[in-house]
Specification:
The complex is a heterodimer. Chain A is mainly α. In chain A, about 70% of the residues lie in helices and about 0% in strands. Chain A has a two-stranded antiparallel sheet with strand order 1-2. In chain B, β1 and β2 form a beta hairpin. The chains are: A mainly alpha, B alpha/beta.
């Protein structure tokens, strides 16, 4: 009897574990880890070296994941909120990052493509970029919330126009910043061997964690995403909340824009943050969040972001050329979408029930 | 089959999980008649129509059609159409961005080729013969709603239909448009088409119909010649109450006496929203329970929605305790101490995926503000309190509300609004589709709240409930207020007479 009870308890906790939203991304992460462990344990090797500036830096595949995945994690925060509130996704984040980055460079250079010194403090440039990115976010949000345009279609406008706007901000020039401290945000702070983007991402996570704890952002976005008409009758303003979600995503975009331009102390309008929107959306989906909106788990999305980066890095490591990468990722997406499709889930649960029934009969 | 009968449905049974939607319903349609199918919510009219058009299968029963030997099997809407049964729905199901002719022939052409010239000519001929004021080459979207309806009917007629089903065709039309539609219906009747007319406008039934079939609770009440069924009788049959039923003694009636010179809690003057109701006056006193009554679609809900600011208010004045207030959105109403439990629990009430706890605190949380969330402990305490108070049956307060039964979902929504401590509570069909026990619970609760000084407006399709709980009834017909009953007038006969109105 006692044995039976413990067995029941363990199956229940196992069930809870499987039901937990974090289960899918963590399982995917473990799967990738095991694969790498078997294929080539070098994947996990981290070495301490010095970079060209003579600072101690850690390097290795895991550090790459931590570094690049952080950008994605920051975007995933905003994308999760947009998805939850509007039931759609913003595909213009890559283009918006180009704009934000371009604004930062423009303010820092003050119109001169090769300034000797910075024309403005970095913090000022960043704040200006925040305002601009949030305005573009609000633009998307207004299209979605007030004009009731499908999010993907609404953001298609900025997706198409964003990179030319970015180029236009700097008169189509490619400014280069020579000030070394500007490179800290996308690289390393002297004396700290861990890449700065990771710290920035952690800061963002703490901020969003506090916001979710001390405001009603979660309740409001979820309510609007699940049942707009009911939310309205409970005194919420669904339109405003959708716009708010897009504005928060704009803020995330500005942060990533800073990291991106800091990495190369310059900008390439057509390449910067290319296709990053797809990875961000994928992170949200991999986190087990319904892309049709409603309930969300921020933690799952953030883990999802690092899993995506882990997948990308793994593929790179095994020599998949950059051009073929999307095709491989597509396979993962297909699997994911199929597994999470309602029809498949229904089929699976029916199948499980049948098996259970058979067992009982036997 | 007798000569003049086009459609005979016999002993139709349809069961949905847990509900016997149709129980041995018979329906007979003759050639060249307009036959009204009447019944309140849940009577089974739409289920019957859907069985006839092949949308649903039936558990039992036979359908006979003129010109076919034996019972016919209708498995899909296509089958129904091929057998000459056409349906025109309330919402236009044509494509507004195609031309009239394209809409007439969409889905009916064979092969890839298309003789456009012939198609347009055919369309014009049909439209002319039915005197529909539209041109074949015109885009459908440029026609008025009534003309679009008529084109939908013309399309059905052109498919050589013997049975034409019009499901609430007039609800989005104005009076003149309705007239045009009726003329078309009469023309078709003259041509020998059998028309089933589903509507909830009493006036319209008496204007065009020849026969009425009344249904209630999935059962056939009867088929009547229109001359033999006065309106009061029709209303009483739909509601299932005998007019001269003296048994409705009101029990311990709450003889509500307003204090002299008391300022009403809420007073509305000429209030009108964009939902299509006529302007109405309304007031409610402290501790009073009143109600809006009328048939489905008479505008009961639209009135209370206007009070709560749920629809766009386009005119009228509202005073709370003598002070004029502006209520343009639900939040304004909530801030003024008004709470509104909406009619459609699934669509407007519950937030399905959220927990019972979140559903309870939602409205009060919104009132409290974005930057002042309830702590988890507070929320849990509130949830526990109301789960106990209203005896809500739920696995836990973390259970998503959608997995609760209808009655318990409704109790959660009631809890949500009680938690806002309103002065004025509007309950729109709080007892629809829930079990008897919960119904009684809710009625008791209403009376208890009123005795504690809350003002309550109570709306229900069940007259009994209204008579039991309300001390004043506002009667509505065809989207306007037609009477107000208090005291001794609060009995079924008077209420039904007022609902039916006009000539008896």
């Amino acid at each position: 009897m006692a044995g039976n009870e413990t067995k029941n308890a363990s199956t229940v906790s196992l069930k809870n574990l499987v039901r937990n939203q974090c289960f899918i991304p963590i399982a995917a992460l473990l799967l990738l880890a095991v694969f790498n462990l078997i294929a080539d344990p070098n994947f996990f090797k981290i070495t301490l070296g010095t970079n060209s500036a003579g600072n101690p830096v850690l390097s290795g595949f895991l550090i790459t994941i931590l570094d690049n995945g952080s950008e994605l994690a920051i975007l995933a925060i905003g994308m999760t909120l947009v998805t939850a509130a509007s039931g759609g996704q913003d595909i213009s984040v890559g283009a918006a990052i180009a704009i934000a980055g371009s604004v930062i460079l423009r303010v820092l250079c003050g119109g001169n493509a090769r300034p000797e010194t910075l024309q403005a403090p970095i913090i000022v440039a960043f704040l200006v970029a925040c305002v601009v990115a949030m305005l573009f976010g609000a633009f998307n949000g207004v299209l979605v919330a007030y004009f009731k345009i499908q999010p993907m279609i609404a953001t298609l406008i900025l997706y198409t126009a964003g990179r030319s706007i970015a180029a236009w901000i700097n008169n189509n020039e490619l400014p280069v910043i020579s000030e070394p401290s500007f490179g800290y945000f996308g690289g390393f702070i002297p004396g700290v061997p861990i890449p700065t983007p990771f710290f920035i991402a952690v800061a963002c996570m703490i901020v969003i964690g506090l916001v979710l704890k001390f405001t009603n952002l979660r309740l409001y976005t979820q309510a609007v995403g699940i049942n707009q008409s009911s939310s309205k009758l409970n005194g919420l303003n669904p339109e405003l909340i959708k716009v708010l979600a897009f504005v928060i995503l704009g803020l995330c975009v500005a942060v990533v824009g800073l990291i991106k331009v800091s990495r190369i102390s310059s900008i390439n309008y057509s390449v910067i943050a290319k296709d990053i929107e797809m990875d961000a959306i994928l992170a949200v989906a991999l986190g087990g969040n319904a892309l049709s909106g409603g309930k969300f788990s921020m933690v799952s999305s953030i883990i999802g972001a690092y899993v995506i980066q882990c997948l990308t890095t793994t593929l790179y490591k095994f020599g998949v050329p950059a051009t073929a990468l999307p095709a491989y990722k597509a396979v993962v997406v297909i699997l994911l979408v199929i597994v999470s499709a309602p029809t498949v889930r229904e089929y699976a649960s029916n199948f499980m029930k049948k098996m259970k029934l058979k067992k009982e009969v036997a | 089959m007798e000569d003049n009968i086009v459609l005979k449905m016999r002993n139709i049974h349809k069961i949905f999980p847990g509900v016997r939607a149709l129980q041995g319903v018979d329906f007979t349609l003759r050639k060249g008649e307009i036959h009204a199918l009447m019944g309140e919510n849940g009577a089974g009219k739409s289920t019957l129509i859907k069985v006839l058009t092949g949308v649903y299968g039936k558990e039992e029963g036979d359908i006979f059609l003129d010109g076919t030997e034996g019972a016919v099997a209708i498995h899909s809407p296509q089958d129904a159409q091929n057998m000459g049964i056409s349906t025109v729905y309330q919402e236009i199901t044509l494509c507004p961005n195609l031309t009239v002719a394209e809409n007439m022939f969409i889905g009916r052409t064979k092969g890839v080729g298309q003789n456009w010239k012939k198609m347009n000519a055919d369309t014009d001929r049909i439209l002319q013969s039915l005197e529909v004021p539209a041109k074949a080459a015109q885009q459908l979207g440029t026609c008025s709603l009534a003309v679009q309806q008529m084109i939908a009917i013309a399309r059905a007629v052109d498919m050589e239909c013997k049975v034409l089903i019009l499901d609430e065709p007039t609800s989005s039309l104005d009076e003149q448009e309705v007239e045009k539609l009726f003329k078309l219906m009469r023309d078709l009747r003259a041509k020998g088409v059998g028309i089933i007319f589903v509507t909830h406008f009493l006036e319209q039934v008496y204007e065009v119909c020849d026969r009425i079939t009344v249904m209630r609770d999935g059962k056939l009440v009867g088929e009547y010649e229109i001359e033999n069924l006065p309106r009061v009788q029709l209303v009483s049959k739909m509601l299932g109450k005998e007019v001269d039923d003296l048994s409705d003694i009101k029990g311990e009636t709450k003889a509500y006496q307003a204090e002299k010179d008391a300022v009403p809690v809420l007073e509305a003057e000429g209030l009108v929203s964009n939902a299509g109701i006529k302007p109405f006056d309304f007031h409610i006193n402290k501790g009073e329970v009143n109600g809006f009554t009328g048939l489905l679609g008479s505008g009961r809900s639209e009135c209370v929605r206007a009070i709560f600011g749920a629809d766009r208010v386009i005119g009228g004045k509202v005073k709370m305790k003598g002070k004029e207030v502006k209520i343009t959105k639900p939040l304004d109403a909530m801030k003024n101490g008004i709470a509104y439990l909406p009619e459609d629990r699934k669509v407007d009430g519950i937030v399905g995926d959220l927990s019972v706890r979140d559903n309870i605190i939602l409205a009060q949380q919104v009132l409290k503000g974005f930057f002042k969330p309830f702590s988890k402990a507070e929320a849990n305490k509130v949830a526990d309190e109301y789960i106990k108070l209203l005896n809500i049956k739920t696995a836990s307060k973390d259970t998503p509300i959608k997995s609760l039964s209808g009655g318990n979902q409704q109790k959660v929504i009631v809890a949500r609004w009680l938690f806002t401590h309103p002065e004025y509570l509007i309950l729109d069909e709080p007892t629809r589709g829930i079990d008897v026990g919960t119904k009684v619970d809710i009625q008791k609760l209403v009376l208890k709240l009123a005795s504690e000084g809350m003002s309550v407006t109570f709306i229900s399709s069940e007259l009994d409930e209204m008579l039991r709980t309300c001390s004043r009834l506002i009667v509505m017909r065809d989207r306007k207020v037609v009477g107000e009953l208090t005291g001794d007038d609060l009995n079924q006969a008077t209420v039904m007479n007022t609902i039916a109105g006009g000539d008896k």
